[in-house]
Amino acid sequence: IITGSPGTGKTTVLKTILEVYRRLHPKGEIVLMAPTGRAAMVFSLHAGLPAWTIHRRIYRERTFAGPEGQFNLNANLASDTLFIVDEASMIANYGGGSSTFGSGCLLDDLVRFVYGGRGCRLMLIGDCAQLPPVGEQESPALQDDVLERMGLRAYSCDLGEVLRQGEGSGILVNATTIRQLITRDTATLLPRIRVKGFADVAVVPGDELIETLSSSFSEVGTDETMVITRSNKRANIYNQ
User: Fold this and answer.
1) Nearest residue to 197 via CA among 174, 176, 223, 168
2) Residue 140 — very low, low, confident or very high, per pLDDT cuts 50/70/90?
């Protein structure tokens, strides 16, 4: 398990692992997967290899008589293959009712599929501070104890130092504070946002927001200007 926030070097570490793996196991295969199509596309772009969605790789549609749209767990015919899953924080292990895919517990099915092959291994990459899957308190695929209860020996590494952003960034300082509240089980505490002394954080009164947005549109363009609100209603107002 490799965890870390954005900018800590997960992609760089992954590229190094791929290079070393090819040297140590020249006959071994590597399969990339992600929970969604978009995540798979981004993963493929970063790693330079094709990537699959988890569902497309591990499930197959039933061919015998039965309800349409039902999918069974596929057989893993691979051998000596390293399966690497990105955005693993999104992998649920809670059925929560009827499911058309396998057992309804995606993590269980993923582990059963990977280790159904001869000499296969699984690497999970993600961010523990991302929202957990629906119905879960934490992301089960990033928890050592969850995998060990499945009979696996889990090795984990957390990349804690952000390298992609300047040390003097107010965004980084505040984001790190919020992440520390989460990891210390004090998520109920409100973070104190620091706004003074940073070039990349500013307080803008409401009557100046439209002017600020217009300036940003002119300087960096609409694609690089983003407004985040706390409700869909207000988001629709801004979009209009």
Assistant:
1) 168
2) very high
Say what the pTM is.
0.75
Contacts of 92 (CB under 8 A, 6+ apart): 105, 106, 107, 133, 134, 135, 136, 140
Please state, in angstroms and rounded to a whole number, the distance separating the CA atoms of residues 147 and 151.
Answer: 7
For residue 19, CA distances in Å to 13, 44, 59, 202 come to 10, 15, 29, 42
Question: 25-68: per-residue pLDDT in tens?
Answer: 888 899 999 999 999 999 999 888 999 999 999 998 876 655 56
Alpha helices in the chain (DSSP H): 10-24, 37-47, 54-58, 106-114, 144-149, 170-183, 206-220, 232-239
Q: What are the angstrom distances between the C-alpha of 195 and each of 169, 202, 204?
A: 11, 6, 11
Whole-number Å distance between alpha carbons of 74 and 56? 10
Spacing of C-alpha 120 from chain mean position: 22
CA distance 140 to 43: 21
H helix or E strand, kind and range, residue 159: strand 157-159
Token digits of residue 228: 């985040």
User: Residue 17: CB partners within 8 Å, gap ≥ 6?
Assistant: 123
